[in-house]
Amino acid sequence: MKDVYKMTVRFDLTDARERNLAEFMQTLDVKKFQSRNQFMIDALADYVDLQSITREQHEEDIRSIIREEMRACFAEANFAPQPMTNAPALTAEQQEEAEQDIMDDLKLFD
């Protein structure tokens, strides 16, 4: 028995999807993917691997990515209190009015 399994792939050129795939395979960059054969093996292996992943695994992968991104965002964030440099000082009259407003508000609790 040989150590190689051979198979032929036929594309129906009257079917738009298959015609697009055939055109893709004809223009495949073999320097990038080693060969058309290797591309087909890799594509088939990736497809089979994806079929075996459960919904729970997908959800956990998504959660993991979100956690990682949030950590990165918070690591860059600056939560230190910022000094209020542009706060205008109240005049004596404004200060007295603000204090009276507070006292009036407190009377509502009596």
Give a verbal description of the structure.
The chain is an all-alpha fold. It has a domain at 30-76. 64% of the residues lie in helices and 0% in strands. The protein is built from five helices and no strands. It has helices at 16-26, 30-33, 36-52, 55-76, 92-107. The longest helix is centred in the middle third of the chain and has 22 residues, at 55-76. It is rod-shaped. Residues 84-110 are annotated as: Disordered. Residues 94-103 have a biased composition (Acidic residues).
From the structure above, extract its key features:
110 residues, mainly alpha, 64% helix, rod-shaped
Mean pLDDT: 88
Query: From N to C, what is the helix and strand string?
Result: HHHHH
Any idea what the shape is? rod-shaped
Q: Which regions contain 5 or more consecutive residues with pLDDT less than 50? A: none
Helix segment count? Answer: 5
- Largest sheet, strands/sense/barrel: none
Q: Strand share of the residues?
A: under 5%
**How many angstroms separate the termini?**
97 Å
- The count of strands amounts to 0
Helicity, as a percent range: 55-70%
* Rg from alpha-carbon coordinates: 34 Å
Biased composition (Acidic residues): 94-103
Region (Disordered): 84-110
What's the short version?
This protein has helices at residues 16-26, 30-33, 36-52, 55-76, 92-107.
Set out the fold topology:
Blueprint: H1 16-26, H2 30-33, H3 36-52, H4 55-76, H5 92-107
